[in-house]
Task: structure prediction
Amino acid sequence: MRIILAPMEGLVDAPIRETLTRVGGIDRCVTEFIRITHGMLPPRVFYKYAPELHNQSMTEAGTPVAVQLLGSDPQQMAVHGVKAVELGAIQVDINFGCPAKTVNRHKGGCVLMREPELMYGIVAAVRQGVPKNVPVTAKMRLGYDDRSMGLACAQALEAAGAEEIVIHARSKVDGYKPPAYWEEVARVREGVNTHVIANGEIWTVADYWRCREVTGCDDVMIGRGLIARPDLARQIRASQRQEVAPDLAWPEVVILIADYAVALQTRLEDRFVTGRIKQWLNYLRGGYAEAEALWPLARKLRDVAPMLACLQQPVRRIRAA
Result:
């Protein structure tokens, strides 16, 4: 009954993985995708997306992190999978789910679901190249143009040797609009023997249990729901024990955001730091009335210092305690 933090390009970076795994309840993370084209990427690119490689592929909280690759050339994907393992990766994940137009236009991500045979070739090449003790996994959607290709693509991934398949319960065309088609994930799961992990529209503890009931999946991957409620995985863990965990109070969330901002300043220019914080605050508006109240002021701030001052003011007393 694992809970996996989903990769989200431009948001779920190493600092936020560190932040959320410190809150607790998350069993595994997956990096933002590393785009593979032609030519061997230098180690610094792998370390940029997965600095956890310096820590035995784990966050400081001890949560394992998989390295995700995105590309369409089987041999290039294979040699980069091997390189990731040489640098310390303990799992290689392959992205067949990204719906971004720029990615799909360059034959990456979800557009590959139009070609199950190419998906097979990519995974087979990576599986053949990567040591057998390192899992090769994949993330996909239910299809590109519609939801009709999910089973065929999952069967191709299974035949190629993927140990696990995460299925985002929508097609590319569906984007991120509700609902998530969990019943379609169940249909695909029933058609393969490979372990299937459900993903999509898990915002609450109740959503988690409904997703598991409908899909039949023991494991789930959560992205936006964990950004909106940083303690969601911890809440789910408590519910599995038939307990109720105390909610993460807003002042505690503000501390997380402030620490996240400090970590970001070591990696990004200030203008990008404020952008990431605003992005997180925007998600938090759905779970916290305080975030909604803060939003009109925060969205106008452009510099890190005023942003941190805005965030830290309510928590000085808590830090002192």
Notes: The longest strand covers residues 65-70. The two ends are 36 Å apart (CA to CA). The longest helix spans residues 250-264.
